[in-house]
Write a structure and sequence with these properties.
Layout (H helix, E strand, L loop, with lengths): L1 H19 L3 H16 L6 E5 L2 H8 L6 E7 L6 E2 H7 L12 E5 L7 E8 L5 E5 L1
Antiparallel strand pairs: 1-4, 2-5, 3-4, 5-6
Length: about 130
Amino acid sequence: MEQWTDALLQGFQQTLIGARIADPMAIKRLETMLLNAQQYAYLNPFASCSFSRSIALSFALADDSPGFLLTIQGNWLDGLDFEYFRRRFRYWGDAVDHLQEFGLSKELRLPFQILLVENVHPSGNVNQVYP
């Protein structure tokens, strides 16, 4: 699994480099990669985050089970803002923009830091776990 994730991350990195220098094939490939990453978990090498608390909460409470909600802070350039690239390259078709997704590569590490961890329950109960 780790090799698969590394290969996907490398593919994203190479495609982003090409898209930033206006390679039309890379720009088209990036559109497909962003959409596939949001539609198929096995094609998403990122720890998926959202700029929206309500979206993150819906994932934490999936299947009516308790979950954890982490509030993190870090440098925007050290992750992948899906909607930024959709706006930048004018991708419109089949977007999953409501997720307001931000991807972190492999693990949460500096410059990102955890500010708050909450244990959330479908009943509406929220327990602060950290700090």
